[in-house]
Amino acid sequence: MKKYKPSFNKPSANDDQGVRAKKHLGQHFLTDENIASKIADTLSYEGYEKVLEIGPGMGVLTKYLLEKETEVHVIEIDTESVEFLESNYLHLRGRIHEKDFLKFDLSEIFRDEQYAIIGNFPYNISTQIVFKVLELREQIPEFSGMFQKEVAKRICEKEGNKTYGILSVLTQAFYEAEYLFTVPPSVFNPPPKVDSGVLRLTRKENYTLPCDEKLFFRVVKTAFNQRRKTLRNSLKIFNLPDNLREDAIFGLRPEQLGFQQFIELTQKIEPHAISGK
Predict the structure, then answer these.
(1) Following DSSP, what letter does each residue of 178-237 receive, concatenated?
(2) What distance in Å separates the CA atoms of residue 48 and residue 26, rounded to the nearest whole number?
(3) Residue 54's domain spans which residues?
(4) What positions does the domain Ribosomal RNA adenine methylase transferase N-terminal occupy (predicted)?
(5) For residue 2, how many C-alpha atoms fall within 13 Å in the half-sphere facing its CB?
(6) How many CA atoms lie within 13 A of 29 on its CB side?
(7) Higher-scoring residue by pLDDT: 123, 167
(8) At what angle do helices 213-225 and 259-275 cross, to 10 degrees?
(9) Is 247 flagged in the annotation as binding?
(10) Is the overall model pTM greater than 0.85, yes or no?
């Protein structure tokens, strides 16, 4: 595999070269080189040759990604950050994409290729980033990065806990989720008001569902929208027959079900939901 060596003078994480953090973009620039290097090491770089970094800012994580045996692409919505990257990271020429990740069609960069996603994600769109990754999972075997700690914990949480919810179930149905380490506010500029957490998602060998996928998503979301109720009550919208609603699983609350049980629940509902019975 080709070794992509960085051809630039590495800017320091504390380099004050004029990129201003913008509140409306949720920007908090990481200033700790060791943590940046540690985040870059969370990916295995196996089974794919390209990595997409979301929101590189001034490139504190980017420079460590460029040292890996991979082709790095970055996507950044902030024009000022893009200009900084173009001036300081000449090796990235042609692979700096000034786009909104949530709206951009990634097939323009990656056709049918496998690639990983990494980043220090803006808190305000981090859950939306995960949902888009789930949609694109056929091409994304690995995903890692920094979230608000509470969100990262929720994604990795197991059933039976209060923080376990929609994002936990949907993510864990397709990926193995690992909470890796916590990052304090003091290593950001400006510092956020809460701790951050780094996680890793590794796609499961079998990442297709043995049930209707759209119905699975709908069942999970409907159940957790009234999480204090039993499934017998929260899933009334499906107009299920009385004999099915007497099944023991409908006496449980959503946080008591692991993703596999939600698959089984969807399989029970599927014949009735599709037929309209």
Answers:
(1) EEEEEE-GGGEESPPSS-EEEEEEEE-S--S-SS-HHHHHHHHHHHHHTTTS-HHHHTGG
(2) 30
(3) 23-203
(4) 35-205
(5) 8
(6) 21
(7) 167
(8) 110
(9) no
(10) yes
Give how many domains the chain has, as a whole number. Answer: 2
Answer yes or no: is 73 a known binding residue. no
* Residue 87 structure tokens: 């001036």
Inside any domain, residue 11: no
55 is in an annotated binding site: yes
* Helix/strand/coil for 120: strand
Contact 227, 162 (CB under 8 A): no
Angle at 201 between CA 57 and CA 78, to 5 degrees: 15
Counting DSSP H helices and E strands in the chain, the numbers are 10, 9
113 labelled ligand-binding:
no
- Given 203, 226, 254, the domain boundary residue is 203
Residue type, 80: E
Annotated ligand binding at 120? The verdict is yes
Q: Is 203 left (phi over 0), alpha (psi -120 to 50) or beta?
A: beta
Q: Is residue 88 part of a domain?
A: yes
Q: Are residues 111 and 227 in the same domain?
A: no
Same domain, 68 and 190: yes
Taking only the tens place, the pLDDT of each residue in 129-164 is: 999 999 999 999 999 999 999 999 999 999 999 999
Sorting pLDDT into bands at 50, 70 and 90, what band is 120? Answer: very high
Q: Are residues 30 and 151 in the same domain?
A: yes
DSSP designation for 19: P
Q: Is the peptide bond before 241 cis (omega within 30 degrees of 0)?
A: no
C-alpha to C-alpha distance for 4 and 227, rounded to whole angstroms: 48
Please report, for the domain that includes residue 226, its CATH number.
Answer: 1.10.8.100
32 annotated among ligand-binding-site residues: no
